[in-house]
Amino acid sequence: MIARDLTAKLIAAARASPAVTLTGPRQSGKSTLCRAVFPHLGYANLEPPDVRRFAQEDPRAFLAQFPNGAIIDELQRCPELPSYLQILIDQDPTPGKWILTGSQNLTLLQSVNQSLAGRTAVLHLLPLSHGEVLHFHKHPVTLNETLFTGGYPRIFDRKLNPSDWLGDYVATYIERDVRNILNIGDLTTFQRFVELCAGRTSQLLNLSSISGDCGISQPTAKAWLSVLETSFLIFRLPAYSRNFSKRLVKMAKLHFLDTGLACWLLGIRHPDQLRNHPLRGAIFETWVASEIFKARIHSKKSGGLFHYRNRHGLEADMVISNGEMLSAVEAKAGTTVSEDMLDTVRKVNAELRPSSISETHLVYGGDTAQKRSDVSIIPWHQIHTCSW
Predict the structure, then answer these.
(1) Proportion of the chain in helix, strand, coil states, percent, rounded to 5
(2) Residues 334, 364: contact at Cβ < 8 Å?
C-alpha cells in the first residue's frame, strides 16, 4: 500500500479518541488504509448479508467477538450498532480501540452523531491526490492521462483500464448506493441526471436549467444533488462574499470529486479525446478544485473554499480563506502563460485587497513554475507541492 496523505491525521485521531469514524466514497481505500495502520485490531465487514444479520440480530454478541477492539467496515449497513458501541466505549474508553468506516456520509454520520457524540473523531478519505498517484510505479505522465484516469486507488493497484473500471463503478456502486439512500424508481432518468451534472462541472449550479433538461422537478433535482454529495461524487463551492448571508443565496459552483468519473460520464473513453474536447478547460478547473479540496480535507481543514464572481462578471475559480487571509486561484489548461491568464487573478487581487488577500495563484497546463511579483504560477504536475 502506498502512503496516504491522511495517515498521520488518522494515527493522531486514534491516539486521542476511543473511536475514529472514517468516511469517504466507495473504493477510496478506507479499508486498505485502516487495516494497514491498525493491523493489531480485529476486522469485520458488514457488507456480506450473513455478517450484517449477525450484527443486526445480536449486536452484543457480535461486538463481543472483539474484546481488544476492531475495524468495522461499512457501518452504515447497520445503523443501530453505534448505540451498542457507546456502552462499550463508556466502559472502556481506551483510545483507538474502534475504527469505523462507511461510504454514505449522511447515513453514517447521523447514526454516529446520535450515539457516539464526543466519543469519536471523524475523518474523510477521498480518492487519491496527484501526489499520492505519483507513488505508484506506473502512473499517468501527461495532463490528459491524469484527467482521464482520475484517482480511484484500484485502477492503479490493479493496473486497470480506467474506462472499464469506472463503467462498472457507475453500474454497481452508484446505482446501489442511490437505492439505499433515496427511493429512486427511474434509474435511467437518474443516470441521465448524473451525466448532465458531469456536463456542468465547474459551472454555476442552476437547478432550474438542469431539472428542465432532465425532465424532473426542481425539488427532485435538489434531492438528487444531495445524494451525489452524500456519496462523495460531487462537491459544491459556495460564492465568496464579505457579507456571510449573501454567500447563502448566490449560486454555488458544481465540481466532480474525480475527473476520471466525470470523463466517463461525458463519454470520453481515451485520453486523446481530451485534446480538443470542448469541456477540457472545465475538466481541468474541476481537477484543480478537487486537488485543493482533497488537500484541505486530508489536512483536516474544514470549509474555507469558495468561488468568486462580482456583478460585473469578474470571476476567480477559487478563493481560499485561511482565517483573515485570502488566496485567489485561477486554473487554465493552456500550456503557455499569457498576460490574459494573469489578468483575471490580478483584477480579483485588486478587488479583494481590502480583505487582506495574501496570495494569488495561477495553476496551468504547462511545465514551468514562475514566481512573479504578484502571482505564483504553478505547473499542473506540481499542484501537490503547495500548502493549500
Answers:
(1) 50, 20, 35
(2) yes
Sheet containing strand 19-23, edge to edge, reads 42-45, 70-73, 98-102, 19-23, 120-124
Domain ranges for the chain: 7-124, 130-282, 305-385
3-state secondary structure of 301: coil
pLDDT in tens, 215-229: 999 999 999 999 898
SS3 labels along 12-36:
HHHHHCCEEEEECCCCCCHHHHHHH
Q: For the domain 7-124, what is the CATH code?
A: 3.40.50.300
Backbone angles phi, psi at 47, to 5 degrees: -70, -45
- Give residues with Cβ within 8 angstroms of 315, minimum separation 6: 307, 308, 309, 344, 348
CATH fold group of domain 130-282:
Arc Repressor Mutant, subunit A (1.10.10)
Burial of 355 (0-12, 13-18, 19+ CB in 10 A): middle
Q: Which residues contact 53 (CB under 8 A, 6 or more apart)?
A: none
Q: Where does 17-151 have alpha helices with state H?
A: 30-37, 49-57, 59-64, 81-91, 105-116, 130-133, 143-149
Q: Which residues contact 374 (CB under 8 A, 6 or more apart)?
A: 346, 349, 360
Q: Tell me: the pLDDT tens digits for 294-333?
A: 999 999 887 899 999 888 888 999 999 987 788 899 999 9
Query: In the CATH scheme, what architecture does the domain 305-385 have?
Result: 3-Layer(aba) Sandwich (3.40)
89 three-class SS:
helix
Checking DSSP bridges between strand 42-45 and strand 120-124, what pairing results, if any? unpaired
Looking at every residue in the chain, the average pLDDT score rounds to: 92
Which of 73, 65, 11, 61 shows the shortest CA–CA distance to 38?
Answer: 11
- Helix count (H) and strand count (E) of the chain? 18, 13
Region of 160 on the Ramachandran plot (φ > 0 left; ψ -120 to 50 alpha; else beta): beta
